Amino acid sequence: MSGKIIAAWSHGSFEVVLSTYILKELRRVLPRLVHRHGLSDAEMDDLVDILTNELSRR
Questions:
Q1: Whole-number Å distance between alpha carbons of 26 and 11
Q2: Which residues form the domain of 9?
Q3: Which of 2, 19, 3 is nearest to 54 (CA)?
Q4: Which terminal residue of the chain has fewer beta carbons within 10 Å of its beta carbon, N or C?
Q5: Cβ-based neighbours of 19, under 8 Å, separated by 6 or more
Q6: What letter would DSSP give residue 53?
């Protein structure tokens, strides 16, 4: 699912609203959720890295 979301976002289907607080919260809660949604630790890190890079580009 996250791959589809990233693809839609990269094609401009929607805009992601981010803040430093949101990224910190994401890092805090993702480890508890990744196993429910089938993400590996590496995929979780990649997702947060992609979002962090997007925030730093603004």
A1: 23
A2: 2-57
A3: 19
A4: C
A5: 55
A6: H
